[in-house]
Amino acid sequence: MEAFKLMQMASAYGQSLLSYHLGGAPSPFSASFAVSNRCNLRCSYCNFPLMEEPELTLAQVDTLFDRLREMGVRRLGILGGEPLYRSDIIDIIHQAKKKDFFISLNTNLLLYPKFRDRLADVDHFFTSLDGDPEKHELNRGKQSYDKILSAIRDIVGRGKPLTAICVVTEPDRAMADYLLALADREHIQIHFQPECFDTEIVLRSADDSMNQTAIREFWHYLATCKRQGASIASSADYLEYIANWEDFRKSSVLDMDSKCAAGRGFLFVDSTGHAYPCAYTKGKAEGVNLLREDWRGTFKHTPCTRCIVGPMLEFNLLFNRPVRSVFNALKQYG
Questions:
Q1: Is 22 part of any domain?
Q2: Is the pTM above the cut of 0.90?
Q3: What is the side-by-side order of every strand in the sheet holding 189-194?
Q4: Counting C-beta atoms within 10 Å of the first and last residue's C-beta, which end of the chain has fewer, N or C?
Q5: Distance, CA of 282 to CA of 276 (rounded, Å)
Q6: Count: domains in the chain
Q7: Domain range spanning residue 41?
Q8: Residues of the chain whose pLDDT is less than 50?
């Protein structure tokens, strides 16, 4: 990460954290933008490809990026669907670069060879690996696992950091061990996140017969692996938080004794330019059209206050346990 971007991110996070704890106006330092819902995969748990929504033009994207900058956003996650499905994705990334965002790109990498020499503006790559080839294709459909690994090696070879996201659909330690061994070989990190349920962006509902004890033991196991130095991007606090979750059939709860940073410290923007506190709240909260409305004057509250939804939980810990979370991040990435 360039020193300038690091300073920008730290300053934006500090302002966002201060506003969050003092009850000031929303001042998110991070935004995720789904540039398209279209995708070349049909993952068993993802509803994005079935959500047929219009996409912003390049001119509208430029306006959106200006609005995000004005709000205080300095970290921009570009995702989909599959973002590389857009023929103008390189133009979108260039626009983000001109606004001095720290840019992450979340892609399944199947289209990466087409763009490999034009992605230098991306600061951090995210992709998906749900286990060995058989398990991965069971979750995400028939594809070339070797093609994904080849793209990972090319990205790492260019000096770019990469994190592979594993959506945990069952508590399989052997599959976790497989991924952690692969991470060591390929010099990447693995972020584990539970499958989430009952919201617009996902397909499946929770199975009432799920083995809660086995799931809890699995997340405790990952926390132990993390403390022993495994290549896990997820924080130990995050892993233990999930391990101690009360009911894995519910991905989120409304607890009036808890506070959520979604919408104040971070937010999600869909392909139409409508913003939500986070991706999980799309369909649960009313969207705000950022091309016409000011988020700071329209956002009020989140429909839930505690969750185990992957990246949202990590961000929440960053705001609700700031000293510990920042210290852990510095150890991880410093």
A1: no
A2: yes
A3: 189-194, 162-168, 124-128, 102-106, 75-79, 30-34, 266-269, 274-276, 288-289
A4: C
A5: 6
A6: 1
A7: 27-333
A8: 327, 330-334
